Amino acid sequence: MDIAADRVVTLSYVLKNTAGEELDRSDPDRPMVYLHGHRNIVPGLERQLEGKTKGDKLDAVVPPEEGYGPKQKVKTLRIPRSQLPGDAPVHPGARLIMESQGQHFPVWVEKVQGPTVVLTPQHPLAGVELHFSVEVLDVREATEEEIAHGHVHGPGGHDHD
Ligand SMILES: [Zn+2]
């Protein structure tokens, strides 16, 4: 079965930057599972995966414009560490969800300065050319419910508690 919209794809990946430094890789015990065609992964990788099938390996270079966007000047937010939940990750690059006026949006820890945490709305990989090495492990049809929700259910996917 080929990768196409409304199909669920399981893949393993290694992500490097232009210098060849490893930025991320999928957990061997928990490969990445996503619903294709619903912008659940960066657009450049989603586009290059189109038509691939189980067992295919692929090296995909994704420019920032099709990745996490160009690096922009953004307003950072400085908050006391004590205002974050005790279990919140506060290392640089950690992702947190902020709530403001009933809206939830992601922010990332840029740095920690003593008791102060500097948060940025910009993804840490903004402006970075992404070099993916991907192996397609499985492709299946999505259920109607998954398509309606726009994400995967079950193992590796979203859990509705
Ligand atoms: Zn759902």
Uncertain segments:
none
User: Total helix count?
Assistant: 2
CATH class category label of the largest domain: Alpha Beta
Q: Supply the helix-strand structural class.
A: mainly beta
CA-to-CA gap between the ends?
31 Å
Proportion in β-strands? 35-45%
CATH T-level fold name of the largest domain: Chitinase A, domain 3
Biggest β-sheet: count, sense, barrel?
5 strands, antiparallel
Radius of gyration over C-alpha positions, nearest whole angstrom: 17 Å
Mean pLDDT: 94
CATH architecture of the largest domain: Roll
Give the % helix.
under 10%
Secondary-structure element series: EEEHEEEEEEH
Give the domain tally. Answer: 2
Number of strands: 9
Basic shape: globular
Which molecules are bound in this entry?
Answer: zinc ion
Q: Describe it for me?
A:
Helix content is 8%, strand content 39%. With 161 residues, the chain is mostly beta strands. The strands form two sheets. Strands 1, 2, 3, 4 and 9 form a five-stranded antiparallel sheet that branches. Strands 5-8-7-6 form a four-stranded antiparallel sheet, with no helix packed on it. The longest helix is centred in the first third of the chain and has 7 residues, at 43-49. It is globular, with a radius of gyration of 17 Å. The model has no long low-confidence stretch (mean pLDDT 94). The site of zinc ion has 5 residues, from loops.
Features:
Chitinase A, domain 3, Thrombin, subunit H, binds zinc ion, mainly beta, globular, single chain, 2 helices, about 160 residues
